[in-house]
């Protein structure tokens, strides 16, 4: 089967997996804020960290000009980029290995990993962002292999565009600079790439300047203390961050972590340019995700997980020359059962039972430990029922009320409650 055909099949399979598991009702967190933006049908004109300019304005285009429903648009703004990212990851892995079964297996390990799977099932920017990041990786690796001018220029363009989706991608700038250094012999190409990068990036500052926003708010926000909290962490906090990072890694990749270790060694020995590029990208994206002091920092690991999956594929390839590993292709089918088993185990211990009761308004432990969101509790019904909880949900309630007010213009409350 050809690479293109397999990539299409990967897209189709993941589209259906993510569609079947997608939220039944608008979930908690930032979901209602994004749906509200789409419902308002007003384009954003600022490029700040919380704005997610390209993500929100893409959604607004569909609701404003094509009259699509805001909830449906935001659902597919997670599902479709997620399926495309899985398909593109297959292409990235194929840049390193010939074996289709290894590439497919590795993609399913990533695509069924908790963090990415959950991001595909809710309303969030992270699968849309992952698509731009994986394209950046693909063209960077292609450039390192072929020195193609169009690929080298595309790398600078894709990275700078990704900043308009999520500013966390500035953590990939060091990898981009290393990439340019590795191709220093292609002087004209890297100059064109860098100029393209600087031009598109600088437009963010110009956009904010037109809106009388200080340039620093391109990178930081005055709506939250996250950056300050990150810089003021104690040593014990940093240790806890590292432990959490390792637990996230285990929950996402379980036994496949072993293959990643062999894959890193294999890439170092056989392709030092790609190893250096991926290593620098890993250090900064992993470091940012680990130490950034926000409650949902697990989603910031996705960029690193894309690279980690390449390491897994290379590790399987390396070890398959010594062992018969073809049966591994069925291993990802067990991943959902790992989540169910983990939920059962945590639910049986006192701490788990206590946490379940505290978060029951969201669905308890199931909300936190299962990636799919079918039959979930929604923030609209939570708001309408005036449910009490200890968490700070003031902003969520206000956004939910505003969304309800807009929908009441053309939809009865009984129907809105179901959203």
UniProtKB/TrEMBL annotation:
Q: Where are the transmembrane segments?
A: 45-66, 73-93, 99-116, 123-141, 153-183, 190-207, 246-268, 275-292, 298-316, 328-346
Signal is among the record's keywords? no
Q: Which UniProt keywords apply?
A: Membrane, Transmembrane, Transmembrane helix
Q: Pfam families given for it?
A: TMEM260-like
Tagged with keyword Membrane = yes
Quote the protein name from its UniProt record.
Answer: DUF2723 domain-containing protein
According to its UniProt entry, this protein's organism is Chryseobacterium aquaeductus
Q: Where is the organism placed in the taxonomic lineage, from the top?
A: Bacteria, Pseudomonadati, Bacteroidota, Flavobacteriia, Flavobacteriales
């Amino acid at each position: 089967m050809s690479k293109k055909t397999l990539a299409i099949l990967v897209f189709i399979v993941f589209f259906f997996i993510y569609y079947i598991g997608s939220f039944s009702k608008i979930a908690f967190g930032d979901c209602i804020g994004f749906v509200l933006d789409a419902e308002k049908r007003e384009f954003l004109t600022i490029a700040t960290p919380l704005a997610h300019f390209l993500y929100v304005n893409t959604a607004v285009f569909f609701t404003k000009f094509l009259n699509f429903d805001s909830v449906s648009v935001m659902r597919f703004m997670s599902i479709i980029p997620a399926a495309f990212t899985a398909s593109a990851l297959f292409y990235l892995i194929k840049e390193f290995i010939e074996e289709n079964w290894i590439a497919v297996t590795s993609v399913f390990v990533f695509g069924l990993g908790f963090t990415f799977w959950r991001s595909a099932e809710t309303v969030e920017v992270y699968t849309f962002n992952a698509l731009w990041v994986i394209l950046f990786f693909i063209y960077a690796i292609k450039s390192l292999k072929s020195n193609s001018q169009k690929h080298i220029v595309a790398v600078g363009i894709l990275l700078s565009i990704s900043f308009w989706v999520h500013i966390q991608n500035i953590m990939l700038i060091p990898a981009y600079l290393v990439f340019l250094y590795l191709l220093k012999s292609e002087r004209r190409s890297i100059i064109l790439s860098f100029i393209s990068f600087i031009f598109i990036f600088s437009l963010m500052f110009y956009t904010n300047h037109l809106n009388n926003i200080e340039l620093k708010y391109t990178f930081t926000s005055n709506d939250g203390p996250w950056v300050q909290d990150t810089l003021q962490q104690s040593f014990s906090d940093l240790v806890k961050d590292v432990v959490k990072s390792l637990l996230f890694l285990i929950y996402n990749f379980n036994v496949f972590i072993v293959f990643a270790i062999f894959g890193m060694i294999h890439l170092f020995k056989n392709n030092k340019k790609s190893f250096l590029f991926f290593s620098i990208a890993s250090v900064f994206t992993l470091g940012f995700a680990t130490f950034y002091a926000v409650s949902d920092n697990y989603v910031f690991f996705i960029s690193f997980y894309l690279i980690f999956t390449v390491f897994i594929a290379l590790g399987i390839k390396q070890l398959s020359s010594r062992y018969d590993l073809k049966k591994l292709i069925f291993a990802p089918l067990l991943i959902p059962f790992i989540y169910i088993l983990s939920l059962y185990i945590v639910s049986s211990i006192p701490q788990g039972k206590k946490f379940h009761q505290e978060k029951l308004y969201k669905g308890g432990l199931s909300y936190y430990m299962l990636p799919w969101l079918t039959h979930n509790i929604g923030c609209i019904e939570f708001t309408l029922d005036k449910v009490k909880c200890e968490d700070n949900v003031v902003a969520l309630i206000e956004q939910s009320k505003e969304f309800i007010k807009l929908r009441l213009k053309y939809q009865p409350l009984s129907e809105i409650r179901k959203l």
